[in-house]
Amino acid sequence: MIIPNKRIAVLSPVAWRTPPRHYGAWETVASNITEGLVDRGWDVTLFATGDSDTHAHLHAVVDRGYEEDSTIDPKVAEYLHISEAFEHAAEFDLVHSHYDFMALCYTRLVKTPVLTTIHGFSSPKIMPAYEKYRDGYFVSISDSDRALGLNYLATVYNGIDLSLYPLQEVGGDHLIFLGRIHPDKGVHLAIEVARLSGLPLLIAGIIQDETYFREHVEPRLSQTIRYIGAVDVKGKNELFARARALLHLNTIPERFGLVLAEANAAGVPVIAMDLGSCREVIQEGQTGFLVKNVHDAVQALQRLSEIDRNACRQRVQQCFSIDTMVQAYERVYSTIFELETRRRS
Fold first, then answer.
1. 94-97 and 57-59: which strand pairing?
2. What is the pLDDT of residues 49-94, one digit of tens each?
3. What is the rounded CA–CA span in Å between residue 130 and residue 322?
4. CA 183/CA 189 separation, integer angstroms
5. What is residue 215's DSSP assignment?
6. Angle, helices 233-242/258-265, rounded to nearest 10 degrees
7. 8 A C-beta contact, residue 297 and residue 291
8. Cis amide linkage into residue 19, ω under 30° from 0
9. Please, what sign has the CA dihedral across residues 187, 270, 194, 176?
10. What is the C-alpha separation between 270 and 245, in angstroms, rounded?
């Protein structure tokens, strides 16, 4: 569904490059949407860091992500970046923002409609911004991660590039953890599962909470429970090749969980805490198991032989591919254009 002569601006964050080299879920999704739209013939401009990699038109006022360059002041970079996009809003038929509540504050200053994909509510303290602009256009990334009263047009699940994650038809011997080293992600619970099951565990991801790592992760590392640092796509695939299962024992409701889809794309079963969107991404007994505690997770390890690795990948192809995501956004765009036409007539 390509609407002729429509120009789309995609506003990506500038914490990291788009797409990110290592961590950066929002930048990953913004990139996948951008490239998917371009592949389907849309005229797209990506507002992102200057070192971003895209087939769209790239518009940048910030050279590098502020998480990758300590000389950059994050707030200065963010507001230079967001304001630049909105100063050029009249050149586009739609601005698709992935910039959380900050970009909302510009939406009533321009005539161009703005669609905000809400990647998660980081704190109750940001809700007044959403409440003020509640009549804007919003998309949620899971049915479970919604706030009452916002004008949601759809839930659109995040899509991944399956070509990056080849199917690993035979599993390895390791448990793996991929994600932020933060109490929200339950690294300590993954370690406990490894300890109780006697299986080796590989932990990968950026350390977002130094105190948590120092007090709850580092003292429990050993020859069989290892932290290997942040990994890129190549590193993820090396982990998937060694994986018996991915442990995702989140302690708060998951918003979406890109790594769940990435692991399943590679055929790796997922054992996830039954909180938030995990129930939407993981198909119980088919692509992994949903658990309520460490004991359940250890028990689930005994059932991994029930999981068909090809079925894991097939579900990602059907539900969480770039094409599926982009086609859903095309339907949302069409709805917005129709609503805007009625509003102006």
1. unpaired
2. 999 999 999 999 999 999 999 999 999 999 999 999 999 999 999 9
3. 27
4. 9
5. I
6. 60
7. yes
8. yes
9. negative
10. 6
